[in-house]
Amino acid sequence: MNPLAIIGRSFLDFLTVVGVLARFSIRSVKHCVIPPFYLRQTAKQFIDIGDYSLPVVGLTALFTGMVLALQSHTGFSRFDAESAIPTVVVLSITRELGPVMAGLMVAGRIGAAIAAELGTMRVTEQIDALTTLSTNPFKYLIAPRLIAGTLMLPILVLVSDVIGVFGGFFVCVYELQFNAANYISQTWEFLESSDVTSGLWKAAAFGFIITLMGCYHGFNSRGGAQGVGKATTNAVVSASILILVVNYLLTGLFFAGK
Amino acid sequence: MTDAPKIELNGLAKSFGDKHVLRGIDLSVGQRESVVIIGGSGTGKSVMLKCILGLLGSDKGSVKIDGKDATNLSGSALDAHQAKFGMLFQGSALFDSLPVWHNVAFKLAQQPGISRKEAKARAIETLASVGLSPDVGDIYPAELSGGMQKRVALARAIAAKPEIIFFDEPTTGLDPIMADVINELIVKCVREVGATAISITHDMASARKIADRIAMLYEGRIIWQGSKENIDRSGNPYVDQFINGRAEGPIKMQVRKL
What we know:
Low-confidence stretches of chain A: none
Radius of gyration of chain B: 19 Å
Mean pLDDT of chain B: 86
Shape of chain B: globular
Oligomer: heterodimer
Helix content of chain B: 25-40%
Order of helices and strands of chain A: HHHHHHHHH
Structural class of chain B: alpha/beta
Number of strands of chain A: 0
Strand content of chain A: under 5%
Largest sheet of chain A: none
Shape of chain A: elongated
Number of helices of chain A: 9
Largest sheet of chain B: 6 strands, mixed
Number of helices of chain B: 9
Number of domains of chain A: 1
């Protein structure tokens, strides 16, 4: 086959995917804001996404904060800059590592679960059955997940920010013999509210991406158990890559003028 | 009551890429009539039902319900169109996250002003009409046998008293006795609800029991239709081959020679 044809074809395939995905997103968001709403479904998703992800997100944040303190110490102690460690820990956690680590963990946990559930519902015709029972699957299945994901991730990240900072505090005070009161006052000293809120905006964007990818791949899965497996993998991989790309773009947007 | 047929298809065609699944279907189904569509696997039976339901858009031809055009609707017109239908899916397609009673009362429970208690009471009444006891209502679909799942799915399809009911291979995968139980329930329920029914099947015993009229689909067209009494003397070699289940005949199965 002509190599130019291969390039052309894959480029057109890529554009097709982007177009289909854009239409799917617009349709999904439309159903998030137009009634009727399924409050019971939405509440259930809040519990699934928020409550059940908290342990894994919290644990990730704890160890991220701990290792961050330990690594900064080995570096900074070489030029007597240990006093900068609390600031490094809190800024890295709130701006970058809190939202990104939580996003990646939730993509693996929730994105995969959504894709598998919706994929199974698709291949067993449960989604068609919803339609014959006068229920729009976008409203009943997708809108509750998108709403819960977008609103729940910032809350998860806020909790994980606190846990991550505590992880750094724990290592510095109990391993490296820092003064606890000094550590806390230095944490607050250079922290601005924009550091935290930018992280929370990122978290909301990641929550939307994770649930959208889970819904998109699950909803469009084809062909039995293998199709569901493929949908699950694609949901996690595409959500993870998009999180990293969007994180870079949002960082540029938030901190470009500073 | 009007004299217009309940469902009228004119030259309905649907292709997937270069695969022509429906090549122009003409079929009319009278008020409260029960028509069974027979035909081999992959002849487009399910696609035809999905085109009538509006789950798939058609390429050519028209669908009329009660004499009014219902081809390729969208938005609220599509919702109103789909509200007229009930469907029994091949794999039952019960929602496995909901208990049996909620499956049966799904459409009812969506309506404003209906409490969960009322919905459950109505579900249990409907379950009784397909011969299931009230205690089945509280268990989950996965805990039921295939025959019981089919009966629950039948109860769900008739619960909202639809004008038109579709049965997609209602007896596939059941033992002959349970198949006959389901056939009798279908005949009884359709009569009680006063619905128009289209069933697709390749089980001739089932077709003879449910049908007022039988039509045969082959290569995307209706090649024969007539009352069930006439099916044995159709004079059509395709129909003869199908109802007698012979490998030899005008219908060539796509089997690759080794």
